[in-house]
């Protein structure tokens, strides 16, 4: 398999995963990394997530707020902004369209490609 | 912040410095943001606050899980990595139904045009057809209409020529001679356009409208009713068939032309077809005058 293709695909989808993850609740960065790296299929590295969180914040899709934690140091929690919510709707729709279209060409498991 | 041993603190600082170097060239605020996130992450990984210092081995394990500092550099692309959403296509089934309805509608419109005009005035049909085709079909011409569009363009050009000559002839009567060949050409072109669009439908409608046939049909009320029913059934059926063959897109000019043309066609259809037919029927039903009536 072409590793470069897979890496690029994963990176592209990481934004989709993060925004969907943050959509449900306020999450702090460490939690995001832990949840994403726990999913084996995504193969996410920490070095990918934090820069992406920073970029999403810079682009106005996420807002970060420093919250004091009783267990340890202050944690920065991320929340989806209204712009981020609109963006999430768009990319979720795009993802459904793309996957729907790609599935039409997928070779079923157990059958060799022509 | 949990205390570190000197070696652990140095290793951590070295790691963060290398990340900073890897991110060199980026916005300083972004770099600080990433480093702050990393410090938070390291703090979470080394465990809860306590008196015990974080040793070198512990710090090394944490940093190893973070990955090499150089891996941070390419992760901040200048543009969003996710592709922009493509325009959502209409559902195939809905588009198919809408397209079919449009085509039936257009076919219906064309059939109405063909219902009464051949009976009343074929040259008039050619004029109207040329105008309609040139004004409506040609601008929205696609592959389906391209052939008819060329005819329409020629018809429209001839019509324009006739119009100009006609206006000129109002001032100089001799110029009317110039209009004659143009008129013939326009009629010929109009007939071609008309037949190109109408095809077999025109033949059916024209045949149904022949005066002789109409006269025979009107001798009997039952035959006349059957004739009208058949005519309208043929009209709608051929409208559907023609629509499928020559239809256009919903919202296209031809659709609106058909919509606006409907009351007009029905009005003139009644004035020019049904009323004369009724008058003819009444005349046929009345007794013929005796030959003596014509004597002076």
Blueprint of the fold:
The complex is a heterodimer of chains A (114) and B (296).
Chain A: H1 3-24, E1 27-28, H2 29-38, H3 46-58, E2 62-67, E3 75-80, H4 82-103
Chain B: H1 6-22, H2 28-46, H3 56-66, H4 92-120, H5 122-137, H6 146-171, H7 176-198, H8 200-208, H9 211-217, H10 221-246, H11 253-285
Helix pairs in contact in B: 1-3, 4-8, 4-10, 4-11, 5-6, 5-7, 6-7, 8-10
What does it look like?
The complex is a heterodimer of chains A (114) and B (296). By secondary structure, chain A is an alpha+beta fold. Chain A has helices at 3-24, 29-38, 46-58, 82-103, and strands spanning 27-28, 62-67, 75-80. In chain A, a hairpin with a 7-residue loop joins β2 and β3. The two termini of chain A are 17 Å apart. Chain B has 296 residues and is an all-alpha fold. Chain B contains eleven helices and no strands. Chain B has helices spanning 6-22, 28-46, 56-66, 92-120, 122-137, 146-171, 176-198, 200-208, 211-217, 221-246, 253-285. The radius of gyration of chain B is 41 Å and the shape is rod-shaped. Chain B starts with 5 loop residues before the first helix and ends in an 11-residue tail after the last helix. Chain A binds chain B through residues 11-16, 28-30, 33, 45-48, 50-55, 57-59, 71-73, 75-76, 90-91, 93-94, 97-98, and chain B through 1-2, 23, 27, 29-30, 33-34, 36-38, 40-41, 43-44, 48-49, 65-69, 71-72, 75-77, 80-86, 88.
């Amino acid at each position: 398999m072409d590793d470069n293709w897979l890496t690029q695909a994963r990176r592209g989808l990481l934004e989709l995963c993060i925004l969907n993850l943050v959509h449900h609740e306020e999450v702090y960065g460490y939690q995001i990394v832990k949840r994403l790296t726990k999913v084996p299929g995504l193969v996410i590295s920490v070095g990918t997530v934090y820069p992406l969180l920073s970029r999403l914040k810079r682009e106005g899709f996420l807002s970060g707020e420093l919250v004091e934690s009783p267990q340890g140091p202050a944690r920065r929690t991320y929340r989806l902004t209204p712009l981020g919510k609109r963006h999430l709707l768009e990319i979720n729709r795009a993802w459904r369209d793309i996957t729907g279209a790609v599935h039409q060409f997928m070779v079923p498991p157990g059958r060799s490609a022509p | 912040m949990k205390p570190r041993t000197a070696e652990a603190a140095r290793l951590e600082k070295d790691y963060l410095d290398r990340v900073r170097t890897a991110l060199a060239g980026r916005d300083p605020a972004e770099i600080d943001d990433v480093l702050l996130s990393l410090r938070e992450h390291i703090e979470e990984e080394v465990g809860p606050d306590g008196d015990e210092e974080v040793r070198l081995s512990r710090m090394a394990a944490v940093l190893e899980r973070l990955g090499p500092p150089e891996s941070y550099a390419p992760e901040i692309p200048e543009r969003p990595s996710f592709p922009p959403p493509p325009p959502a296509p209409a559902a195939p089934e809905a588009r198919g139904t809408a397209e079919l309805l449009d085509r039936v509608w257009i076919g219906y419109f064309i059939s109405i045009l063909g219902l009464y005009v051949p009976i009343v005035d074929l040259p008039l049909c050619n004029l109207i057809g040329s105008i309609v085709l040139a004004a409506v079909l040609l601008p929205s011409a696609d592959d389906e209409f391209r052939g008819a569009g060329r005819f329409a363009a020629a018809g429209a050009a001839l019509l324009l020529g006739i119009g100009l000559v006609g206006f000129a002839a109002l001032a100089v009567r001799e110029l009317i001679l110039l209009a004659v060949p143009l008129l013939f050409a326009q009629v010929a072109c109009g007939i071609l356009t008309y037949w190109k669009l109408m095809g077999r439908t025109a033949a059916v409608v024209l045949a149904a409208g022949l005066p002789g046939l109409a006269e025979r049909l009107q001798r009997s009320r039952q035959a006349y009713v059957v004739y009208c029913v058949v005519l309208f059934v043929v009209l709608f059926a051929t409208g559907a068939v023609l629509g499928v063959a020559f239809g256009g897109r919903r919202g296209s000019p031809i659709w609106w032309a058909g919509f606006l043309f409907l009351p007009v066609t029905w009005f003139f259809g009644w004035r020019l077809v049904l009323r004369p037919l009724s008058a003819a029927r009444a005349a046929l039903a009345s007794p013929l005058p005796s030959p003596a009536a014509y004597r002076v």
